[in-house]
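Sanity check

After download, print the first record. It should look like this:
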Amino acid sequence: MSILIHPDKCVGCGKCRVVCPGSLLWKEKDSNKTIMKYPDECWGCTSCLKECKFNAISYFLGADIGGNGTMMQVEQKGHELHWHITEPNGETKVITIDTRKANSY
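Expected structure tokens:
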């Protein structure tokens, strides 16, 4: 599995479920919160991560891509995306991207 859903932060808005291209995110019956129905089939596309405005989803950066077990969350403020990278030791780094310039080469 490449994502982790934090039930304590999920508000049940369902936006992540709508954007999941694999239809892997489902509504929990009792709470309306999101759960990962088929974790082994997650592609790690991060669509849900980018859509969640409540930091309820973390992306696992595995060792195969140099992450060594770090977790990433995304926060959007206006035109800026703030990528919060948390190392296994608890240290957090923030990468800020201006979405208006994200595709300039």
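If your output differs, re-run the checksum step. Summary of this record's structure: Residues 86 and 104 are 27 Å apart (CA to CA).
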